[in-house]
Please model this.
Amino acid sequence: MKRRNFLKKTALTAASTIFAPYILPSGRLFARTGSRKVNHVVFCLFAGGVRNIESIHQNEGNLLPSLFDGPFSTNPGIQFLGQSPWVQALQHEGTLFPEFRYQEGPTGHFNGHTVAVTGAYTDTSLNVRENPQMPTIFEYYLKHNSPSQTALNAWWVSNNLGPYPALNYSKHPDYGSRYGGNHISPPNIFDFRQLSAIDTPAIFQFHEEEMIGEIQDFLNKNSRGVGSLSSSGIRNTAEDDAQIQAFIQSTIQQVYSGAFSMPFGLSPNFLTIDMLNILFTQELLKHFQPELLVVNMTDIDVCHSNYTEYCNALVRADFAVAHLWNTIQSTPGLADDTILIIAPEHGRNLEPNTLQDVYGRFAIDHTSDATSREIFCMILGPQGIVNKGNIVGSASNPVGESIDIVPTIANILGFDVDIPSGLLTGSTLQQAFV
Amino acid sequence: MNTLESKNAKQMMKSWILPLLVGLCLLSACKQTEDLYIYEVNNVEVNQADVEKVNLKTDLEFVSIVYSDLFGSTLPAEELSQLVRTYNSMGDKKLVEDMIIKDLLTRSDVDMPTSADMFADSEQFVKDTYKRFYTRVPSEYELWFLKNYIDTHSDVTPEIIYYSFLTSDEYRFF
Model:
């Protein structure tokens, strides 16, 4: 009898050890998180409205020589920046979906960005003054990834302000700011042209920090402020806060000391806002090595008024993204453990508008015609994880759409199985993986 | 003659009446102005210690108010624009507020009492600080606590007190 009890207890102990439940932030008892493909994902929104006519079909010659095979454009007014920062066209580093689709909803920049980070199409009711309705990839990651991480591992790096800062978390009742990623807009902080507004901080010693803590604690306990401060956005932990402040201060001092005087090895005259954003994204990646980072570029949108400058913005964005890949592959901890996804948020119209540039080329808008829904997507990653040199889909057989990127990121980081059903309608782009 | 005198008397009266009427009108007007000062409002303390603040400051309000609270002047438009841009460039508002406040506190033209002034009259310093940043008077308990804190911590500085107020929860509300 005693032996039976002993065996029973032993079996129960062993079973509980093996199947010990984790109480996840999502409320799940068991961590069902699947296996990861890599530990870092960088999603580069090659945004601003890029037509497949110029990118994939190369009607102006190859404007994206770092991304695609093909001789560089020889058309007048288009400037070659120099040898690509990466040894070969990036399409050989992974899988290209040349006929990707932005299937539904208005082809507006904010709509496109929202679709890209939420994996859900939007309609004309999208409010640019509010956070999205559906959860963002940052919230899915911070809520469902196991083990739980802080927002130091989830970054939204936007090249501009306006409505874009709102894309780091949603208004969804089950998610929201408590699962929000960090947002930063480097071109608005690390500005080469003027002194930063936060470059000479008061520095408090440890015992002074202790006094501040005591006084603040007293003040907060007696606060007459009624209401929640949570509406003011995400809040990092004290440790993460200190790390981020130190990173920002150190980067500002590097800017002042001229450490970035030849960004990308180019003259600063070539530097665009997009390139500046990628430049500081690289610093952020090297410093924090986050598991998830989304960065955008939008200078390409000059196409509304100047087609030739649109072509040149594509050339610069192409150069910048190759430099980003080079940085990832040169950084221990990120190299061979990072998947880079590149996709525009939407395309542009087939028909131009009436604005002509000095070369006689007409500008192009994006008003939701069929051509403005045609984009590409590229997934780059390590050998043995990502199918290299692979091309999936064609004009007659388009494969993949914008809402597939979020589930693909979730699948790469292994938490896709934990996302409640009904939130994401896209699918993992399995063809990209071995 | 009588008629002539009577006419002259009437003319004289007329010549007197007009200025007299004008004078009376002016006098009454002056008197009305004086009446305005009669209806004075008794001084009432609106910055009571137990006031509830229910409105969260917007980004623009926060940046403008922290500047005017520290420097006693309106933020120049160009600098306001830069500060708001910096403020909006970080998702963690507490973090960026902290960085902005730390930067403003190091500027030479910030309107801050010296440590000697603070220690010389800590009670007045606490009252002034509450009024300046919280636009209210401190409760008796608040006054006692902070006055005592200053009196018993010789290494506390006005900068530490200011920073603590500016980064406190109540300062986000009005």
Chain B has two domains: 1-40, 59-172.
